[in-house]
Amino acid sequence: MKAIVWFFFCIVLLVDNSRAEKEPDDGFQKAIV
Fold first, then answer.
1. How far apart, in whole angstroms, are the C-alpha atoms of residue 26 and residue 20?
2. Burial level of 16, CB count in 10 A (0-12/13-18/19+)?
């Protein structure tokens, strides 16, 4: 189970970073926190 959680967490970080570079989305980051 931990492997799945870490995999999902890494995906979220990658998506968040790619989005932040183009245009910061406060709603997306608030959804994570």
1. 9
2. middle
Q: How many residues does the chain have?
A: 33
Find all residues with CB under 8 Å of 16, minimum gap 6, and list them: 28, 29, 32
Write out the residue range of the structural domain in which residue 28 sits.
2-32
Q: What is the pTM of this model?
A: 0.45
Residue 5: burial class (beta carbons within 10 Å; 0-12, 13-18, 19+): exposed
pLDDT, tens digit, 9 for 90 and up, residues 2-32: 899 999 998 988 887 776 566 555 666 666 5
- Total count of domains within the chain: 1
